[in-house]
Amino acid sequence: MASGSSLLEEELSCPVCTDIFRDPVVLRCSHSFCKACLQQYWEQKESRECPVCRRRSSMEHPPLNLSLRNTCEAFLKEKSQRAKAGSDVLCSLHSEKLKLFCLEDQIPVCLVCQTSEKHENHKLRPVQEAAHTYKKKLRTALAPLQEKIKAFNEVKLICDQTAEHIKSQAHHTERQIKMEFEKLQQFLKDEEAARISALREEEEQKSQMMKSYKDVEKRAQCTLVDPEKVSGALIDVAKHLGNQKYRVWEKMLGTVQYTLTVQRKLQRVRVQLDWDRGEVSFSDPSNNTPLYTFKHSFTERLFPFFCPGSLQICPLKVSSQAQHTERQIKMEFEKLQQFLKDEEAARITALREEEEQKSQMMKEKIEKMKEEISCLSEQIRAIEQELGAEDVSFLQSYKDVEKRAQCTLADPEKVSGALIDVAKHLGNLKYRVWEKMLGTVQYNLSNEGVCKSGIAVWVVVKD
């Protein structure tokens, strides 16, 4: 018949690992398990069910069974104290000291038990000799556990280092992304400044030319030949605005080591007047591609005017023309800069999402390994404690200790695919952004083509 101590130990044993409960948790079905054992069981089964009654659990993190944990700690403490006083352990049947060990039944017996019918023809050994043999055997079984916990600690160290490296990786990669976009933004700022400077220089030059022409006209006498008609005095708006975003995008090619050329000659130009809306529109009749639209509040009569020479499609007043052109230049560059800002934000968001995902993956892996290391440490500690116990006490609990010495944990998985894919975020970044920018700068036929053809335009003429 089993002793009261054995029955109590059985009641305080986890149904999964058959060891005394460690951090016991309780399910709604009232069954309790070691926290680490239950989590490992659920991971293997890929479903949260009770290992005993198979009832599904709705709780991902069951509560600790504090009363059971306290009982287990008290039992282990009492057992340890009994082990220290092993010389007082007596046979429960004959009240004699346990001096022999039955190899068949695997229990210590007294000299009276040796001659009893129960142990007839059984092989017996002195307690000291049997304890020495089984302790040696147990130490051999303990070695794989120690190697296992060493492997877990090594992998956990790698996981800890990887988690830190992910943060460093993300920080460095985000800084590199920002630097690349700063270069692209600076390119746009420099290009915008250069184009506005060129526009203002042309405005100054042609305004001065028009001023000189007026002075000449005032001094002109009837004996003089007719003054030459003003030609090329207006600002070349097409040069400054024609396909501006495309030309900036094309020039940006110099920063990404790539070449793209698009050439198309303009053959005819359609001119359309909308008096009510105040618009004069120019388009390519071959494919209805819009070239340019002037907006103005017409207050005078309009007449069609044909000119076989060079003619710019632009407003008539140099100053207003320059202001309008400069405003258009700034608007176009604002669109390009906004594109870069949006693209930078999207890429940084993608990087941070990957950092969050992989950091969470490493956090879960580290937590799992902590539990497994804790379980192994407790297992080793309990076995080492038994090895230090008095011979009789050791032999009494040897069966259970031998079971606990069997390692059921699989080897720790090596860390794989946990780092941030830096190449995905930084590889050819400027080129990929430049390539994507093409979608915002669809090429249109250059306004400069208008200047090379004789066309009909509408001009305001005062009575």
TrEMBL record:
It comes from Synaphobranchus kaupii. Keywords: Coiled coil, Metal-binding, Zinc, Zinc-finger. SUPFAM superfamilies: B-box zinc-binding domain, Concanavalin A-like lectins/glucanases, RING/U-box. The keyword Cell membrane does not apply. It comes from the Eukaryota. PROSITE patterns: ZF_BBOX, ZF_RING_1, ZF_RING_2. Transmembrane segments: none annotated. Residues 86-127 form the B box-type domain. Residues 351-386 form a coiled coil. This is Tripartite motif-containing protein 35-like. One of its GO terms (molecular function) is zinc ion binding. The keyword Ribonucleoprotein does not apply. SMART domains: BBOX, RING. Residues 14-54 form the RING-type domain.
